Amino acid sequence: MTIMRDLDVSALSTFVHETQWNDIPTNVTRAARTLLIDSLGVLFGGLRYPTVQALGRTLRAIEPTGADSAPFARLVTLGAAATWLDADSGGSFHPQGHRLPPVPTSHPAPHSLPVLLHAALTSQQTDDALLKAFLLSNEVGMRFGVSTTLRPGLHPHGIHGPVASAIASSLLRGNPCKVTAEAILCAQAMPLAATLAVPMRGGTVRNLWTGLGAYYGAVATIQAEGGVQGSGQLVFELFEHAVSSDLSLETLSGDLGSRWHILDSYLKPYACARWIHPALDAWRAATPDVKGAINKSEIAEILVETYAFAASLKEIGTDSDLHARFSLPVCIASLALDGELDAASFLPDRLQRASLRELAERIQVREVPKFSAALPQERPTRVTVKWSDGATTMGEVRNARGNPDDPLDLSEVESKFRGNVESILDEQATEALVSSILYGSAATGHHIAEAADQVIGRFCP
Length: 461
Description:
Blueprint: H1 10-18, H2 26-46, H3 50-62, H4 72-86, H5 109-123, H6 127-146, E1 149-150, E2 154-155, H7 161-172, H8 177-188, E3 194-195, H9 197-200, H10 206-225, H11 232-242, E4 244-245, H12 249-253, H13 277-286, E5 299-306, H14 308-311, H15 321-325, H16 328-338, H17 348-351, H18 354-360, E6 363-367, H19 369-373, E7 381-387, E8 392-397, H20 410-421, H21 427-438, H22 447-459
Parallel strand pairs: 5-6
Antiparallel strand pairs: 1-4, 2-3, 5-7, 7-8
Helix pairs in contact: 1-8, 2-4, 2-6, 2-20, 2-21, 3-4, 4-5, 4-10, 5-6, 5-7, 5-10, 5-22, 6-7, 7-8, 7-10, 8-10, 16-18, 21-22
């Protein structure tokens, strides 16, 4: 007879309630600032997509009048927007590094952000209160990820994220520690077990998983406030045997306040699948004299030699913007033609260009066994460009930039944010967020609330 263990999350709840801002090391708060501004830019940038806007209109039309304080349409739309563009930022990998393919174990940031924006709008939370809730909720979300091994073939969105949503919601609603503990258990009893194959084949339903995860976390908080008690036994069974395995209680709750897993997360310089990033960096290394866009006629052929999982993404996919994000030829062709790969790169008018497909068809992708053997510690990739004038240039990288050991500098984070929010936020709101969140000059202001009012009022009333 199998005995189900009872998962005690009281230490996690105590940690998020009793940790004071001055107790948190500066490098941790800096990491939280960069992750928050990046995630905000990603979410706002995702709202540029016609499909996301249509989703918001559809959900608002069917949401019943007098819905509870967890607005389904708003949270799901905001969560989907964050995933639509670039939800992999903030991901963290299993500390043992043995998972192949090397899929991140958790993406809590886009799950927690919708409830933060809702709280900012409805209760005028200050920037520093939102930043603290973001940091602590994502630290716990990442701990649930790194303390378990995701089942092969599953996608992490919607699995470890609801707990971050629940914690952020509970903290910002002013709940006591006991309620937050029950909210954690209620949220983690609702994981979305969906397959990795769906987004790799262009299925945009993946983007709903994050929105639903954000909503489930918010609902879990409301349930806990109403006296619902979560089941530690159920959560232990789910994360030890069902959606994941090898639940390490020591990793989950050990060294709270001294070991910060948020420091192990990464930021993505490009709005596409993380597996493709080394090839994009290698393209830049092969073309150091190219400062911006090029004409497709300048290139005769591009050869990408990479590891197995990146090499598997060689299909020229433009059926959906998500399909394109998992297409190595499309991503390199887009970067080459435009000099950037950001929110605008995957909008319909860009994807349907004849020049994009023509250049993508000149890109050959091959696996190099020794590159595959370097996984998961490294993701080596080499790009060789044969130019139309007969010249050849080559660039090679051992790993993608944006990892903790090769982070983006603040100017790059700022530039990415500005590019993502263009046409979504006005210049004043953009400047205020960069100043307050990224550089911390006015963290007691209400700049996130003001931006939320501008964006939510437009897309998610």
